[in-house]
Design a protein that fits this description.
This protein is α/β, with parallel strands linked by helices. Helix content is 34%, strand content 26%. Strands 3-6-2-1-9-11-12-10 form an eight-stranded mixed β-sheet, sandwiched between helices. A six-stranded antiparallel β-sheet has the order 14-15-13-16-18-17. The protein has a four-stranded mixed β-sheet with strand order 5-4-7-8. Helix 1 packs across helix 3 and helix 5 runs parallel beside helix 7. It is globular and about 75 Å long. Bound molecules: aspartic acid (ASP) and magnesium ion (MG). Aspartic acid binds next to helix 5.
């Protein structure tokens, strides 16, 4: 008998009818002979509403209290799903993250899972009871309730699948899988039958919104196959699995766009050893996540350094850079918050030359200027003007013929 973890996102438990539909899916998975563990997100936009409420109440929001507040959303879903299952005659018990044995560090609002002690879940399974677990939460080593960061229920589901030795983790969402790009930008975008963990990590890290990045890292590290599909339809979804070395890999699988980026440039930087180290140490100490870095050739001993960051880290980046600038003898700090990063991702890039040229030619034919470039073995990214980002995605999707089926 297989053990499967079924995770239902916010829209999949959005109202009473959707919750009953979730119970039907669970019943069906059991009927065909699986043991099932369910993980749920908060209903619809509950987490956003709770955050808004907190903002209306106070400008001071201690992380411990934010976490206590937000975890209530998933509690509502888990209790209601258990009730819907009871009506179908299925015995189910709800568990908070803490009750499910999810132990995290003490970093409130973005805690990391340190360990899982799934004994209570295991006992429930052994007694034929379906455990329904609140996603996105755990309990810290200091015994406080924590959350795992936005979208964290995916991580809960994959982590539980790993801890319980489940055969797979099925993620139910409002789109039927992972697409070659955002279908709202390119209507011909295609659902992918499968992607490798590595490709999915690049997709999640570079603007794809179907799975939280951390959950994919977890799945890769613990070899948990993920199946992403829609809870609204019965169409097939996308497998996220280990790369199959015997298969020819697609050169490019997906085009992504991350518009929530900004660029900071420090000009007049003395071209000496240690200067970049000081700058990026200062940014690291402010917990800024740097993405791309470009340093120009130096002219008369001075150079410019530009880097990109997530837009919501812009103000702290500016503060850290402005504070540091005089101490290293740099002149000015320039900010550009009108950029977007467009990426092509594919495992086959490793072995196929010419991908870079095709990407640049497609952008140039559309008169889109490339401002910065970065690469990984299976990804090529360009920074472009944000108002040209959608067009860049369209021309790249076409240039690599991603609308054709595999
Ligand atoms: N409810 C949380 C959020 O909206 C966690 C999740 O949905 O995965 O971020
Ligand atoms: Mg969600």
């Amino acid at each position: 008998m297989a053990l499967v973890v079924l995770k239902f996102g916010g829209s999949s438990v959005g109202d009473a009818e959707r919750i009953r539909a979730v119970a039907d899916r669970v019943a069906r998975a059991r009927r065909i002979g699986n043991d099932v563990v369910v993980v749920v997100s908060a209903m619809g936009k509950t987490t956003d509403s709770l955050l808004r409420l907190a903002g209306d109440v106070s400008s001071v929001q201690p992380g411990r209290e934010v976490d206590m507040l937000l975890t209530s959303g998933e509690r509502i879903s888990m209790a209601l799903v258990c009730m819907a299952l009871a009506e179908l005659g299925i015995e189910a018990s709800s568990f908070t993250g803490s009750q499910a044995g999810i132990i995290t560090d003490t970093d409130h609002t973005k805690a990391k899972i340190l360990e899982i002690r799934p004994k209570r879940l295991q006992d429930a399974l052994n007694s034929g009871i379906v455990p329904v677990v609140a996603g996105f939460q755990g309990v810290s080593t200091a015994n406080d309730i924590t959350t795992l960061g936005r979208g964290g229920s995916d991580t809960t589901a994959v982590a539980l699948a790993a801890a319980l030795g489940a055969d797979r983790c099925e993620i139910y969402t409002d789109v039927p899988g992972v697409f070659s790009t955002d279908p709202r930008i390119v209507p011909e975008a295609r659902r992918l039958n499968s992607v490798s963990f590595e490709e999915m990590m690049e997709i999640a890290a570079n603007g794809g919104r179907v799975l939280a990045l951390r959950s994919v890292e977890f799945a890769r590290n613990h070899h948990v196959p993920i199946y992403v599909c829609s809870s609204f339809t019965w169409e097939p979804g996308t497998w996220v699995v280990e790369e199959d070395p015997s298969m020819e890999e697609p050169v490019v699988s997906a085009v992504t766009c991350n518009a929530a980026q900004a660029k900071v440039t420090l000009t007049g930087v003395p071209d000496q050893p240690g200067v970049a180290a000081k700058l990026f140490r200062a940014l690291a100490d402010s917990l800024v996540n740097i993405d791309m870095i470009v340093q120009n050739t130096s002219m008369a001993g001075f150079t410019d350094i530009s880097f990109t960051i997530p837009q919501d880290e812009l103000s702290v980046s500016i503060a850290a850079t402005e504070q540091l600038a005089p101490t290293i003898g740099a002149s000015t700090v320039l900010v550009d918050d009108q950029i977007a990063q467009v990426s092509i991702i594919g495992a086959g890039m490793k072995t196929h030359p010419g991908v870079t040229a095709t990407m640049f030619e497609a952008l140039s034919a559309a008169m889109i200027n490339i401002e910065m470039i970065s690469t990984s073995p299976i990804r090529l990214s360009c920074v472009v003007r944000r108002d040209q980002a959608d067009e860049a995605v369209r021309v790249l999707h076409r240039a690599f013929e991603l609308e054709k089926s595999d």
